[in-house]
Specification:
This protein is α/β, with parallel strands linked by helices and 386 residues long. It has 14 helices and twelve strands. The strands form three sheets. The protein has an eight-stranded parallel beta sheet with strand order 4-11-10-9-8-7-6-5. Helix 1 runs antiparallel to helix 14, helix 4 packs parallel to helix 14 and helix 11 crosses helix 12. The termini are far apart.
């Protein structure tokens, strides 16, 4: 019996993904920073809001289509950038991007990916690319030139990582970047033969040792190495002037990911960015950072005309609709789609998309709406304020 027959919600992908992956790799997807308080709070934030549905509205003409930067998508959610996807699913970045394109949702390729961006841009031309700003102007210019030449149209710049975060839980589970050879790593690989044969050894045989292909304009370090060579230099000197340079260099839609303050949203808008993703990086960076859903309404109000999106904590179609009711144009999920790729490759990702799409479609009817632009704050209520 197919594994997917037992998967009816996005949360159902997590347990089989845990069984399939070595603990180091599962930890990278699953864990958050420090005590994981932000990770838990991201989910709890959705529980604070309750729907106030309308009745007898005639909901036979429902459509969940949206438009972002001139492109029409079939659902108001997409796939967040998650690095190293090719380590838990064979050709993972291609799997995620192609499934998203086939079913008409946005997908963002991570700058910490292990497949050259050029391959993904050819296989799934509508994919967005996510980058971290390099510290030197020449490297910024070279990276942007490469992204544009590859054919990407939308660039997402993540700005919430000026220094490296606390890798405490990763270290406890044996994860590092690059992965360092050890007896524990060898045993965890051997004790997960389906992953070892179907992903890692298959990749080695067909493509050689995976490298950080897109961290900068040039090829980066291998994923498995005795010494850390990946460019982890602190970017603590970066400021808004550097983003302004990127705005001048990048000619297509520019999105800033990692905004949590309305004041920063206003600054980004004044610099000419086209959109922002309100995000605390899925609870992976600053533990204790506020949940994006809690600040979403004030950011939307402060930056009218800016395309405001959100990630962190999305697991259900009801979560999608709550975020849209509070002002988001689109939301993103990373963990669930990467678990789905781990469990069943392209079929798993398509199944995950269809689950979330079905939940959105059903809940639109139960809310009494036909179009997503009917969603507003009147359809949700913060229960803690009652």
């Amino acid at each position: 019996m197919s594994t997917l027959q037992h998967i009816h919600a996005l949360a159902d992908f997590e347990a089989p993904a845990r069984r399939r992956l070595p603990r180091q790799l599962f930890s990278y997807i699953s864990n958050g920073a420090d005590d994981e308080s932000s990770l838990r709070a991201n989910r709890a934030a959705f529980g604070r809001y309750a729907f106030v549905p309308r009745m007898l509205e005639g909901v036979a003409r429902r459509s969940q289509q949206i438009e972002l930067f001139g492109q029409t998508y079939q659902s108001p959610f997409g796939i967040s950038p998650v690095g190293l996807a090719a380590m838990w699913c064979y050709r993972g970045d291609l799997v995620l991007a192609q499934a998203a394109q086939q079913l008409g949702i946005p997908a963002v390729m991570s700058g910490a990916s292990l497949i050259p961006m050029e391959e993904v841009a050819v296989a799934a031309p509508g994919t967005w690319f996510q980058a971290y700003m390099p510290g030197e102007p020449a490297r910024v210019e070279a990276l942007i030139a490469r992204i544009a030449q590859a054919g990407f149209k939308t660039l997402v710049v993540t700005v919430d990582l000026p220094v490296q975060v606390n890798p405490e839980r990763y270290l406890k589970n044996g994860f590092s970047t690059p992965l360092r050879p050890s007896l524990r790593l060898a045993w965890d690989g051997l004790s997960h033969p389906r992953w070892l044969a179907g992903t890692f050894l298959k990749t080695l045989a067909r493509h050689g040792m995976p490298h950080f292909e897109n961290w900068r304009a040039e090829r980066g370090a291998p994923i498995l190495a005795a010494r850390a060579e990946r460019d982890f230099q602190a970017r603590d000197h970066l400021d808004w002037t550097h983003l302004g340079v990127m705005r001048e260099l990048w000619k297509g839609p520019l999105v800033v990911k990692g905004i949590l303050r309305w004041q920063d949203a206003v600054k980004a808008q004044k610099l000419g960015v086209d959109g922002i993703i309100v995000s605390n990086h899925g609870g992976r960076q600053l533990d204790g950072a506020i949940s994006p859903l809690r600040v979403l309404p004030e950011i939307v109000q402060a930056a009218p005309g800016l395309t405001v999106m959100m990630d962190s904590g999305i697991r259900r179609g009801s979560d999608v609709l709550k975020a849209l009711a509070l002002g988001a144009r689109c939301v993103f999920n990373g963990r669930s789609f990467n678990y789905a790729a781990t469990v069943a490759g392209p079929e798993g990702v398509r199944h995950a998309i269809q689950i979330l799409r079905s939940e959105v479609q059903r809940n639109m009817a139960l809310l009494g709406i036909n179009q997503l632009d009917e969603l507003d704050a009147a359809l949700v209520r913060d229960q803690r304020r009652d």
